[in-house]
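Standup notes
- DV: blocked on the single-chain target, sequence here:
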Amino acid sequence: MFNVIFDMDGVIFDSERTLLDCWLEISASYGLDGVLVRNTYIQCIGTNRNQSTEIITNAFRHVLTAEKISSIWDESAALYRRRYSDGNLPVKPGVKEILEYLKESGVPAGVASSTRLQTVEREIRNAGLYDYFVGFIGGDAVKISKPNPEIYLLACREFGFEPGETFAVEDSFNGVRSAHAAGMRPIMVPDMIPADAEMEALSEVVCKDLAEAMAYLKRQESIAASDKTV
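- DV (later): unblocked, structure below
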């Protein structure tokens, strides 16, 4: 049998686009170019707050003071919370279906996200998905976030999963790199950025959506069941 660990932002929730919208709205009031903001934001996908802060600071320091950069971060986060807190964060299509399938099949599932644990648990609980998972790991539990494998190795230890028997469902390049380096079986479901040749090589499979990912897991379950009967 196998286990599954999900990334959260861009996989369970359609949060990458919604947060980018907030960033674009706030940064426009500071006179920042939207293309620069979007390109910088994409570099932050799959990283924790410390790494994102470094990326954003390096991108904007030539046009804004450190104080204004911090203000953009805080104001964007506040706008995001106002719009999407208390269960309003949009769930990606197919999430409920794949989680129900795993639950009914007795396949353990967890979450490993670069987002802080407190936020992960709150958003998962608000969406009514908390009981589908055996545990949660946030980006604040590790020193170096994805693409470093630390977060996935920690998650496997905490959940009692063997990395080689565990699928990692990821949308980001850094997430796939992290899972692959941890010796896991990456399933990429691209969100904002399509898979390239590197992602095709590092992923066990690239799926267009979670429905396709669920179909792939069902095939793996059938293969495992057939092997047992031989």
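- Follow-up: The mean pLDDT is 93.
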